[in-house]
Amino acid sequence: MTISQVSFGSHEPVLDVKDLTVKYIGDTRSTTAVDRVSFSIGTGEVFGLAGESGCGKSTIANSIMRLLKDPAKIAGGSISFGGKDVLAMSPEELRRFRWQDVAMVFQSAMNSLNPVLTIGEQIVDIFTTHAGYSRKESLRRAAELLELVRIDPARLKSYPHQLSGGMRQRAVIAMAVALKPSLLILDEPTTALDVVVQQEIMAQIKDLQRELGFSVLFITHDMSLMVELSHRMAVMYGGRIVETAKAQDVYANPLHPYTQALMGAFPPLTGPRVPLTGLPDGVKFRNIPDLGEAAPGHLVAPFGADASVIDSANLEGAAR
Amino acid sequence: MSHSLTLPAAGSTTSTPALEIRGLGKSFPIGGLFTRSSVRALHGVDLTIGRGEIVALVGESGSGKSTLARCVARLEKPNSGAILIDGVDILKRDRFQASRAFRSQLQMVFQDPFGSLNPAHRIEHFLRRSLAIHGKSGGTEEETRRRLEDLMTTVGLQADMLNSYPHELSGGQRQRVAIARALAVEPQVILADEPTSMLDVSVRIGVLNLMRKLRDEQGISMLYITHDLASARYLADRTAVMFAGEVVEEGESLDLLANPAHPYTQLLVSAVPDPARAGSYDPVRRAELRQAVMASTTCAYDGDTNQACSAEEPVRHQVGDPANRHWVRCHLYRPWAGAGGHALAGEPAQPNVPPSNVQEKASA
Ligand SMILES: Nc1ncnc2c1ncn2[C@@H]1O[C@H](COP(=O)(O)OP(=O)(O)O)[C@@H](O)[C@H]1O
Ligand SMILES: Nc1ncnc2c1ncn2[C@@H]1O[C@H](COP(=O)(O)OP(=O)(O)O)[C@@H](O)[C@H]1O
Ligand SMILES: [Mg+2]
Ligand SMILES: [Mg+2]
Hints:
By secondary structure, chain A is α/β, with parallel strands linked by helices. Chain A has nine helices and twelve strands.
């Protein structure tokens, strides 16, 4: 696999996260959920953030959306969107930023629809309050929007409980792109859905992305799905990024042992059946250093014997 | 482990199967007092697990996988069919006298490794109790102790973890404890219902490897229930595909997933994300498959004089080399229209009424 240019679209990143550190402040002790994380996303680029539960992915997404609540605290770093300092935005600026510049779809978003309003009423609401369109114009656009995610516009009159989980999640995605944001954050958007529905929704997001040209921050713990969909990706562990590169390079040549373990966790559907090892229970990496360049555009945290501490208490028998 | 019994080599098929399910049916009544209807969770299911064999049962959520496991574990009473363990129909046996002997033949491992362990007890307590209930403690305290330590080692845990509480363990470690607890009983069959789906992805393979090791070393037969086709292929000798409460295709895992014959299996296989397979999503093909699953008008075996098709009877067609034990149900035989809980049945046409206070939810 050759390494060509890493950039997609313009060189000016849409989103630039630098040294972001987020802590959850507790009574007795604080957790550093995100630890000096840096990445940027270009125009029209799909950037994946992988790593298993608790590694800090949602905390990053919520930081970008400025949705962090107590006891979370941004302890350092910067987030810039289209050159604007997100962390310095006023409430008024934030209101616009959230729907029109950046939109987010999270795992159980389909359950966050208002149960007593029809889908149509909820979409129309976005247009009238955030874009100032008339009711009639809003309705027309709402119908268009549903067609965009291949839901029959007749469904505008349906209540959320009358739609399947997959359809509800598609409706939420339609609402997220309603105001044509330049960045869409997808936080495990299909984790609760069956694989067939998941694939259809992801294909639709890809189509939408091509059509509307927005950038995507795609969060999942499913490496196969991530590699299929992302241009570039980063792998997180314990609040740190341990590796980042073009998705195909991470897939073909994972360098960090944790990335390798994540890759090894997904047996292939073709080819010979070979034993995989995954990550033994109880193995931990600590004091993960800053990323270094292993190849052009392929950055990895050094993992020499002294750089990461492997807790070998339970190595035995775990894998084989 | 110091097991007294020696077991036949894995995969020997000549003897009585470890588990044989015949024509299993199960319906759940749904609705209120006045709307008597029922959801058909299982219908005419046949499934055989040979001694030392691992069989995977795959399908989307709501297809009936857990109901099948619960029927076999006698947590649910089937409406019809037979379940034979070691050739003996457990549904016919007297409930009281059968239960202990039965449970020591068959153990279940559940999805949630936390839910099944009472947080107030140390790990040792769970294993000790399993040993005691099934009379496998051995004579002396020293023997019991050795047995406990053996169990821990077998599932890849340190013996000193016997003193830990469940919350001190990771999800993967807790699932290993759940497996150790099942092993304490020296079962012939383990039913594992999505045992890795709640675990962190990087430790899932370790648990699958453990299951394989138990089969290889102790000859334990297993039913591995999963919605993850790739893991079924990785672990299981054979795989059965369940759709709307019926098995629609079955075969040796590698052959089945390389040459899926039923449109439902094809649909599942084509939906698995696989970076090695570029451009896997084709909306036109997808629409065709959906149509073929719900209302096929053709069958690949139509006109085959040896394997007549039938829209009335659920006949099976043999796929390829008989050595692969691969069969597919005739496509002309349609799924039950009222089959609940699967994504393919499409959206039921519903009147536009606001939700009332009734939150309908059929599944548990
Ligand atoms: N409200 C909270 N209070 C305290 N700690 C939290 C809170 N939310 C998240 N955390 C901690 O922050 C870390 C990262 O969580 P999260 O960003 O949700 O991870 P992910 O999305 O990758 O699963 C976890 O270790 C979690 O325990
Ligand atoms: N206790 C129950 N009462 C009513 N319906 C049930 C019950 N248990 C399962 N079902 C229904 O039976 C079908 C099969 O469910 P299940 O066996 O849990 O599927 P799976 O494990 O494949 O997801 C579903 O339609 C489900 O809603
Ligand atoms: Mg999260
Ligand atoms: Mg289930």
